[in-house]
Amino acid sequence: MTDTDILIPTSTIGSYAPPSWLCVTLEAIGRGELGETDINETFDDAVRTAISDQERAGVDIITEGEMRRQDFVLGFYERLTGLEELPAPRTQGPDGHDQRGKWLPSVPLSAPDGLGILAEFEFAKNETTKPFKVTCPGPFTLSGRIQTGDIYKERLEVAYACAEIINTELRQLVAAGAEFIQLDEPSYAVYPDRPEAFVKLFNHTVEGVSAKIGLHICFGNYRGRAVGKRSYRPLFPYILDAAFDQLALEFANREMAEIALWSDFPNDKELAAGLIDVKNYYVETPEDVATLLRAALKHVRPEKLAITPDCGFSQTARWAAAAKLKTMVAGTEIVRRELIGSPI
Fold first, then answer.
1. Any idea what DSSP says for residue 73?
2. To pair with 140 at 20 to 30 A between CA atoms, which of 51, 105, 111, 215?
3. Which domains does the chain show, CATH number per domain?
4. For residue range 206-261, what is the model confidence (pLDDT) as tens digits?
5. CA 64 to CA 121: how far, in whole Å?
6. Which residues contact 189 (CB under 8 A, 6 or more apart)?
């Protein structure tokens, strides 16, 4: 079965809630207390846990859970050549985006051994029989913590260097059997004044990648907080020229604000509507989800609609993530039953 066989398929955005034992083990790994076999076994089991939770909830399209990654993008900088980590500008007080480190390049960026996403996929694809989605940070977001130094003139130039590395990884994923790849670009919404430049960058990044392409744009979720003004409208209609098949946007935590963009700017793309609020520990009921889904269907045809949480679950406790996935699936099923027999 493929995702095209499913009416209003459900999925996660990408990251899943880390089990408590993984957090404890990561600390032990940092202290040098585990061997290579121990470490590999830990991450393998974490991925199996993420996939198992999704399958138990009845999610249609499975993700790896990003269990092997460090804080969405930070772990990727260890795979790039010639980067020096700089101290965070703020180390005290409430957790915030300005407490994350930055990196300074001493040579042009490259990743001789790749980004590691290929290895993630090759393991995870054998752990489920369901349709599978691979997730990858987009080049503009990946460039966000990298300074220009004496190597690059501006951030967009850093992003294009990242795009070359990502494109190579995406082509390798397709060769390994990946059919659905999603690029995550929350930074697009943070800098809404340059949508045409983002389209050009995105299209360059996915050039020659023969797979279903998704684009996820959110407003940030570090420690459960957004980092930009929460509006997609400045990106429209320009973003629709990007070479994606599905656009994943968050709506639940904004009470469905801007869902009408799909009517205001008619298009033939798929919309993955975020109907689960990952920044809230209120667990939506199935009817809550069904109500939001019915609102989305006023603007999007059912065959062009998918359902996800607003963002990844990496900042959410596992018990809440698992419960929210179950009600997301149950609420979607309510509306599927309502649509049976209706013209699609």
1. T
2. 51
3. 3-339 (3.20.20.210)
4. 999 999 999 999 887 777 777 778 899 999 999 999 999 999 999 999 999 999 99
5. 7
6. 217, 218, 219, 228, 229, 230, 231, 232, 235
Euclidean distance between CA atoms 143 and 149, whole angstroms: 13
Q: In terms of Cα–Cα distance, which of 273, 284, 251, 219 is closest to 11?
A: 273
Digit-coded pLDDT (tens) for 174-192: 999 999 999 999 888 888 8
- 157: nearest Cα among 170, 168, 166, 147: 147
In 3D space, the residue among 116, 129, 100 whose CA is nearest the CA of residue 43 turns out to be 116
Q: Which residues contact 66 (CB under 8 A, 6 or more apart)?
A: 14, 15, 16, 72, 135, 312, 314
Q: Which residue has the tokens 């470490």?
A: 39
Question: Residue 62 pairs with which residues in a beta bridge?
Answer: 132
Could you tell me the pTM of the whole model? 0.94
Q: Residue 97 corresponds to which tokens in the numbers above?
A: 């985006």
